[in-house]
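Hi F.,

I've been meaning to write this up properly since the lab meeting, where we talked about keeping a consistent format for the predictions we share between groups. The idea is simple: the sequence comes first, exactly as it goes in, then the C-alpha cells exactly as they come out, then a line or two of notes. No screenshots and no reformatting. I'm using this chain as the first example so we have something concrete to point to.
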Amino acid sequence: MHDFDGKAGTWDYDPMKIERARVVAEAIAREVPLSHTMRALEYGCGTGLLSFNLNGQLGTITLADNSEGMLAVVRKKIADSGVSRMTPLHLDLAVDSLPPQRFDLIYTLMTLHHVENTDQLLRHFYELLDSPGYLCIIDLYKEDGSFHDSGFSGHLGFDQKELTAKLKDAGFSDVRFRKVYTIVRPARSYPLFLMVAEKTAD
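Output, unedited:
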C-alpha cells in the first residue's frame, strides 16, 4: 500500500493541515496574479486542501497525486461540493509521461522533499508551464533530520541558494523566497518557505 493511502481518510482531521492550506493559499494569492482564466496544476495534491482554498480564484485545476487513497478523497470532495472545474489525475512524474495539458500555474505543498530527483521534476514543471507561467513550491527550509522518522530517505529540507540554482538550471527566472508558515511541534518548530519562480520564455 502506498505510504499515504492509509493516511488519506483522516488527513483532513488535522487542524494544522487545514490552517496551513489556508495560510499558503493566501500567500500564493499575494505573490502571483491569479485570475479566473488560469489553468492550474497542484502536484502532490493530497486531499486537495490547498486547491479547494484557491478554487474560487482560478479557472481550472488539475489535482495530481500518486496516491490512490488521496485521490479517492479528492474525487469524493469534488462530487460533494459540485465543482466542475477541478479534475483529479493519477500522476507520478518520476516515472509517468508528461500529461498533454499545459498550465499557467503549478504549485506543490510539502511534496518536493519526498522526490529523489528534484532536478528532473523541476525540468518537467518547466515543460508543463506555458509562458508566462508561475511555479510555487512550499516546503521545508533545511532541517536537521528530526522532522521525519529515522527511516525517511528524502531531502532534509532545502537550502535557498541551492534550490535557486536548480530552478535556474531548469530554465526559470525571477526566483524569490519568503517564509510562509511554521509547523510547531513539542520539541521544536519547522518553518516553511514559499518559493515563486517564473517561466518567461520558451
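Notes:
The chain has one domain: 5-199.
The beta strands are 39-43, 60-65, 86-90, 103-109, 129-140, 173-184, 189-199.

If this format works for you, I'll send the rest the same way.

G.
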